[in-house]
Amino acid sequence: MCTNNVNKKPGSITYTQMLNSKGGIECDFTVTRLEAERFLIVTGTAFGRHDLSWISSHAPTDGSVAVRDITSSMACFGLWGPKAREILSSITADDLSFGYMQARFITVGDVPCWALRVTYVGETGWELYPTAEFGLRLWDTVIKAGAPHGLVPGGYRAIDSMRLEKGYRAWGSDITSETDPYSSGLGFAVRTDKDFVGRSALPGIEGTDQRLCCLVLSDPRSVALGNEPVSLANGDIVGRVSSGGLGYSLNASIAYAWLPVDASAPGTAVSVEVFGESVPAEVRADPLYDPTGARLRG
């Protein structure tokens, strides 16, 4: 079912999609192999029921696979940033040297939890997963340890700003069941040497006529939010914004938009209609922030 290879050693994390029969992206998540026959799937906050339904409806019916939703029994905290390692090291005796896209079971303070070395904001850090009854205890432990380092809680809008800077796609806006991985810039997560639902429908990068592109607007005060028209210099409307926002680290108004291939090259001048005003913009190569990935690998 997964486009990527999840048959890796226990402790490995894989970013992958699941496709429908037409090659559209139905699910977008990470799969962590906890044990030889036990996997943890982490998806977006709003998509749990959708993904659970999709997986359950396509799982084998011979009893060889059991799918269970454990969302309500777990808590999740993302500890990310340049001081994340220093903070976490001060409250655990466990070895934190395991690399990016790896997971280990550790104890933070006196709270046992899974630590996933993964990020949706482009900075070094971990997603920490204790059982629900230990959630508040873990929160208090991390907040107290982080206070001397300037740690502050951040919500969805902070995460959304940083994921735009890092070029991470959002299912339901940037990518949907009608968009394929190649045109979405996610071809790196497709393994064509294996079978999966939708594989035969994938057109290949040369066969798609649209691309999901990163745009930077000329005025950081003009922020696109989604569905704004995108026009070429001659005034022709050629696409629409899928998501956007202000990138605070870069002080830039960033938008992702679906454009035809011949308008998708970095450097292409376009304009975005923001609340009735035509704002000049330019197609940029992504990610805009830390393009080598050095910060998230820490």
Explain the overall architecture.
The protein is α+β, with helices and mostly antiparallel strands. Among the domains are: 75-161, Probable tRNA modification gtpase trme, domain 1 (Gyrase A, domain 2), CATH 3.30.1360.120; 164-284, Aminomethyltransferase beta-barrel domains (Elongation Factor Tu (Ef-tu), domain 3). It is 15% helix and 30% strand. The chain has five helices and 13 strands. The strands form three sheets. It has a six-stranded antiparallel barrel. β5 (103-108) and β6 form a beta hairpin. The radius of gyration is 20 Å and the shape is globular. The mean pLDDT is 95. InterPro entries: GcvT/YgfZ/DmdA (IPR028896), GcvT/YgfZ_C (IPR029043), GcvT_C (IPR013977), GCVT_N (IPR006222), TrmE/GcvT-like (IPR027266). One of its GO terms (cellular component) is mitochondrion. Residues 211-290 form the Aminomethyltransferase C-terminal domain. Residues 1-194 form the GCVT N-terminal domain.
